[in-house]
Amino acid sequence: MMTPIYFDGGSTPSKLPPDLYRASDPLHEPKTPRVLVVDDETLIADTIAQILNKNGFRATAVYSGAAAIEFAQRECPDLVLSDVMMPNIDGVEAAIAIRQACPDTRIVLISGQAATVEILSRASERGYQFELLAKPIHPTQLIRHLRD
Predict the structure, then answer these.
(1) pTM of the prediction?
(2) Are 97 and 69 in contact (CB under 8 A)?
(3) Helix (H/G/I), strand (E/B), else coil: 12
(4) Segment holding 111, helix H or strand E
(5) Residues 147, 33: Cα–Cα separation, whole Å
(6) What's the pLDDT tens digit per position in 57-113?
(7) Exposure of 118 by Cβ count < 10 A (0-12 exposed, 13-18 middle, 19+ buried)?
(8) What whole-number distance in Å separates Cα of residue 77 and Cα of residue 101?
(9) Computed from CA positions of residues 79, 85, 87, 90, in that sequence, does the dihedral angle turn out positive or negative?
(10) Distance between CA atoms of 7 and 14, rounded to whole angstroms?
């Protein structure tokens, strides 16, 4: 690793202390992934967000497809983890809107419903592909999947 140097106004460069270098250089700081958790069941959304926050993510929970779209339009998250079956705007429709607003955001859908296949096929016909995880999912498996 190269030792960083800085100029203090004189003609001789000085070495920056390694601890100061790491603290002030964003290229050497680990990035905390920003995750938007979406589920109309508030207990599930809050629990998943808490688990992710305790495991190196910065997660925020919202409780509807409309709230997810609104959040993503303000601040594109690195990752969206959304339930599929929700009232009004389902997770797939929200994912499509989020993908349009935030094309680089990774979107993972979770569902325990058989009807999800039909909803995802409609999204696919419109040119959108999303990852799908089956509910229930163990927190360890979820974290491993999100880190891959």
Answers:
(1) 0.77
(2) yes
(3) coil
(4) strand 106-111
(5) 9
(6) 999 999 999 999 999 999 999 999 999 999 999 999 999 999 999 999 999 999 987
(7) exposed
(8) 11
(9) positive
(10) 6
